[in-house]
Amino acid sequence: APAKPAPAAKPAAPAAKAATAAAPAAASTPAKGGPLSGQTVRIAFMDPLSGPFANVGQNQLKSWQFAAEQLGNRAPSGVKFEVVGFDNKGSPQESLNTLKAATDQGFRYVVQGNGSGAGLAILDAVSKYNERNPGKELIYLNYAAVDPAMTNEKCDYWHFRLDADTSMKMEALTTFMKDQPQVKKVYLLNQNYSHGHQVAKYFKDGMKRKRPDVQIAGEDLHPIGQVKDFSPYVAKIKQSGADAIVTGNWGQDLTLLVKAMNDAGLKIPMYTYYAGVTGTPTALAAGGDSEVYVVAYGHANHTGELGKMGADFHKKFNDDYYTYATYNGIGLLNAAMAKAGSTEPSKVAKALEGMQVKSFAGDVTMRASDHQLQQSMFITKWQKAKKGEYSVENTGYTFVPIKQFDPYVSSTPTSCQMKRPSGA
Amino acid sequence: MTAPTSVSAARPPEGARAPSGGSVGANGFALELRDLRKSFGKTEIIRGANLAVRPGERVAVIGPNGAGKSTLFNLVSGRFEPTSGEVLLHGQRINGKKPFEINRLGLSRSFQITNIFPKLSVFENLRCGVLWSLGYRYTFLKFLADLDDANDRAEELLHMIRLDRKRDVLAMNLTYAEQRALEIGITIAGGAGVILLDEPTAGMSKSETKRFIDLIKEVTVGKTLLTVEHDMGVVFGLADKIAVVVYGEVIAFDTPEKVRANAKVQEAYLGSHVADAQVGTH
Amino acid sequence: MLKVENLHAFYGKSHVLHGVHFDVNPGEIVALLGRNGSGRSTTAKAIMGMVDCTGSVQWKGQQSLGKKPYEIAHLGIGYVPENRDIFPKLTVHQNLQLGEKRSGQKGRWSFEDMYTMFPRLKERQHTEAGVLSGGEQQMLTLCRTLMGDPDLIIIDEPTEGLAPKIVELVAEYLQRLKDKGVSVLLIEQKLTIAMAISDRALVMGHGSIVFQGTPDSLRADAYTRKEWLEV
Amino acid sequence: MEFFTIQLLNGISYGLLLFMLSSGLTLIFSMMGVLNFAHASFYMLGAYFAFTVAQFAGYFPALILAPLLVGVLGALFERLCLRRVHKYGHVAELLITFGLSFIILEMVQLVWGTSSVDYRVPALLSGPLFTLYGTQFPMYRGFMMLVALLMLVVIWLLLTRTRIGLVIQAALTHPETVEALGHNVPRVFMLVFGGGCALAALAGVIGGNAFVTEPGMAGAVGSVIFVVVVVGGMGSLAGAFVASLLIGVIQTFAVGIDTSLVSTLSTIGMEVGPDTFGYALWKLKISQIAPILPYLFLVLILVFRPKGLLGTREG
Amino acid sequence: MPVPGATAAPIPAHRGHGYYEFRPLNIGRWILWSLFAIILGVAPMVWTSSLAHTMLSQMGIAIIVCLSYNMLLGQGGMLSFGHAVYSGLGSFFAIHALNLVSKGQWPIPVSLLPIIGGLAGMFFAVLLGWVTTKKAATPFAMITLGVGELVFAMSLMFPEFFGGEGGVSGNRVAGPKPFGITFGPQIQLYYLIAIYTFVCTGLMFAFTRTPLGRMLNAVRDNPERVEFVGYDTQKVRYIAFIIAAFFAGISGGLAALNFEIVTSEVVSGYRSGAYLLFTFLGGATFFFGPIIGGVLMVLAFVLLSEVTKAWLLYLGLVFLFMVMYAPGGIASLIMMNLRVASFGRLRELWVSYLALAATAFLALLGAAGMIEMVYHIKLNPALGPELKFLGTTLNAHSVDSWFGCAFVLLTGIGLFELSRRAFKRQWGEIQSDIEKEIKRREALA
Ligand SMILES: Nc1ncnc2c1ncn2[C@@H]1O[C@H](COP(=O)(O)OP(=O)(O)OP(=O)(O)O)[C@@H](O)[C@H]1O
Ligand SMILES: Nc1ncnc2c1ncn2[C@@H]1O[C@H](COP(=O)(O)OP(=O)(O)OP(=O)(O)O)[C@@H](O)[C@H]1O
Ligand SMILES: [Mg+2]
Ligand SMILES: [Mg+2]
Question: Ligand 2 centre from B126 Cα, in Å?
Answer without folding.
Answer: 25
